[in-house]
Amino acid sequence: MKPALFARISSVLLVVVAAWAADGQEFLVKKELVWSRPETEIASPQFSADGNFVVLVTRVHWPDGDEAEGLPESFFKQLQLRRSRDPRFADPVIRLIDLKGNSACEISYGSSPTVSPDNKTIVFSRQRNPITGMRALAETQSGNDIQVFDCEKRQARTLAQPGSGYFDSPVFLADGRLIAYTENEAVNGAMGGPVGIERVDLTGAQKDILLTKEATPAVPCPPEGSPKAGFEAFMCSQPTKLSSDFPDLLLDVASADGQLIVLQAKPVPSPGDMYLAKHYSLRLLSVFPERNEILSLGQADMGGLGKVSLQSASDRRVLIFSQHWKPFSLKTRDWLPEIGPRNTNRRSIYSPDLKYYLLAEPTEEPSHISLYQTENGQRLFTSAAVAGLYDMAWSRDSKRFAVVVVPKGAVGSAYREDLVVYSIP
What we know:
mainly beta; Neuraminidase; 4-stranded antiparallel sheet; 31 strands
């Protein structure tokens, strides 16, 4: 295969798509950029503070699950051969691109990148060990540290190293001189997740704990011969799989109004709990610049943890999802009036000014992205159909949004994902 076919493919588009708002006025959506690489996945797109760059993570696609079953054995032999020649050929690579698709910075190997306010440095979680062909589990990410990369000097520095587990999700705090990141470990079998938060300055000399990892002891099963029924009886029959304690879980972390806000789940164990406790107590915390509890959200069972979410917004607000999205004031620490018809879709991504939200539709097997006006629930724009739809992100000024899609026909051995950037009035 010719080397040119493996070169970066980027195209700049200025396609205007007209839609009609509820007041009858024409609403213009412009497709500004489509960026991709052959056989490559795209993850974690995020706009720079000024909205002129997008930082993302690329990784050569290694089919898994149902997709892998439909591909010939020869396809995987080629992947194995490439891995024998280069054990890191499919490891994650961080890229900073401008809105014309030009590369401004590139880092091997890492994930969860964030760009500094001046666009000159990127903080990220370094992938210390080869992960080509493997899933991102707690074991494969063990030892990942926090690094900062100077895009002008093309130099990386290590800011923080874990004693155990791995560090992830670094963000610049309000002044741009401090970085917060999560402390992660295995929390659900082999799956990793955040259990604490630390911060470090850009020199790496000053390190502090913002939220200490805490664990709650498990409740022992009743003695042999004691009456047990239902779920408890089944779980207690498998003592080798029971946990001795359960860590607090950080379901979401968001930067809002100069604060670092955390949606925390504290375990409420019961007999027979395994990797997760059966019930959790939910609360909203501020951990920077000061630590304090903002709001108690009651209890949720293990299956309900994935049904609670947090998004940051402008004007000292956050959005909290529990049955539907609702705004909350960080200033008054009280619920705000509804901002439109109740939106019961947790996967919605709101613009920072809360005027719009994006939604992957249909919900179960999305094939297009839709843009809605928040105040009246009016759909303003629907994208062309695609084979798959993944990440979505907004710029801070709410004027651009980015989506990661799998185009029609880009599956199997021809797999690729596109980053598509749109702008709105």
